[in-house]
C-alpha cells in the first residue's frame, strides 16, 4: 500500500536492516522447561525386550526429518498425504523459526527413528497438539509418543488444557473417542489444523481418567532415569529406509 506523506520529507527511501525486521516476523519464545530424556521398555512381536528412547529433536536433525516425512506426501490413502504435508511444514516452521513455541519429540530404538510427537504452545495454559506418528509397526509406539507429549504438557509444562483435532478416522477412534474427549462449539472454536473441531482435555480430566487410559494402552510408564548406555546407543539418529503405511 502506498500513500503520499502529509509533510515534506528529506529522505523518501528508507533502508532497513533485515535483522530489525526479523523480530517482527519471529514470535518471541516463551521460557519453557525442556522435555527430560525418557525411556520405555517395550517388547517386539517375538517377545524380545527393546528400549524406546524419547528426547527432544535437535534442530540440526530437521533436514533429515523433513527428507523422510516428505515421502508420506505421495501416499493417497488414509490421509497420509495431508499428514505428511502438515508435519513437513511444522518441522520446517521450527527450522526456519516461523512457528511459535514448538516442540518435537522423537522416539528412537538403537538410533533408528521410530516415532514423532509434536505440538506448540498457544500460551502458558493451552497446549496445541499437532501430530503423532509411528514410523515403524508394532510395539504401540504411537501410543507411547502420544502419552509422552501429553505428559510433557500437563506434568512438566503445567498446561491447563490440551487441544487436539484429527485428520484420520483411526486417529479420531483411538484418541478422540478412546479418550472420550469433549469438543468446543464449532465454528466459534477452531483448531489451527484446517479449522477443524477442537477436542480438548483439561488438567482435571487428565488426572482423573485420561492419564490412566493411555498408561493402560502403553503398558508401562516413562522412566526418566536414562542410563548413559541408552543415550550412547541413540547418539546418532537415522531415518528408516522406507515409510510404513
Write the layout of secondary structure elements.
Layout: H1 18-25, E1 38-43, E2 49-56, H2 62-69, H3 80-95, E3 102-109, E4 112-121, E5 126-134, H4 141-156, E6 161-164, H5 169-177, E7 199-202, H6 203-218, H7 228-233
Helix pairs in contact: 2-3, 4-6
Characterization of the model:
The protein has helices at 18-25, 62-69, 80-95, 141-156, 169-177, 203-218, 228-233; strands at 38-43, 49-56, 102-109, 112-121, 126-134, 161-164, 199-202. The chain has 245 residues and is an alpha+beta fold. It has a single domain (38-233), classed as Aminopeptidase (3-Layer(aba) Sandwich), CATH 3.40.630.30. A hairpin with a 4-residue loop joins β4 (112-121) and β5. α2 packs antiparallel against α3 and α4 runs antiparallel to α6 (203-218).
Amino acid at each position: 500500500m502506498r500513500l503520499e506523506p502529509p509533510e515534506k520529507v528529506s529522505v523518501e527511501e528508507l533502508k532497513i536492516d533485515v535483522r530489525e525486521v526479523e523480530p517482527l516476523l519471529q514470535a518471541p519464545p516463551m521460557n519453557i522447561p525442556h522435555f527430560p530424556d525418557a525411556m520405555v521398555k517395550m517388547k517386539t512381536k517375538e517377545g524380545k525386550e527393546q528400549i524406546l528412547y524419547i528426547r527432544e529433536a535437535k534442530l540440526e536433525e530437521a533436514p533429515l526429518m523433513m527428507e523422510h516425512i516428505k515421502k508420506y506426501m505421495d501416499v493417497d490413502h488414509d490421509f497420509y498425504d495431508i499428514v505428511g504435508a502438515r508435519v513437513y511444514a511444522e518441522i520446517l516452521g521450527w527450522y526456519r523459526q516461523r512457528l511459535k513455541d514448538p516442540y518435537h519429540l522423537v522416539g528412537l530404538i538403537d538410533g533408528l527413528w521410530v516415532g514423532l510427537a509434536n505440538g506448540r504452545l498457544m500460551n502458558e495454559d493451552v497446549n496445541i497438539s499437532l501430530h503423532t506418528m509411528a514410523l515403524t509397526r508394532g510395539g504401540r509406539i504411537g501410543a507411547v509418543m502420544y502419552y509422552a507429549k501429553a505428559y510433557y504438557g500437563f506434568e512438566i509444562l503445567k498446561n491447563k488444557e490440551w487441544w487436539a483435532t484429527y485428520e484420520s478416522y483411526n486417529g479420531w477412534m483411538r484418541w478422540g473417542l478412546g479418550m472420550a474427549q469433549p469438543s468446543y462449539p464449532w465454528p466459534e472454536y477452531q483448531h489451527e489444523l484446517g479449522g477443524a473441531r477442537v477436542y480438548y482435555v483439561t488438567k482435571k480430566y487428565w488426572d482423573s481418567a485420561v492419564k490412566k487410559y493411555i498408561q493402560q494402552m502403553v503398558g508401562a510408564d516413562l522412566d526418566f532415569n536414562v542410563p548413559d548406555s541408552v543415550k550412547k546407543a541413540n547418539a546418532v539418529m537415522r531415518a528408516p529406509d522406507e515409510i510404513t503405511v
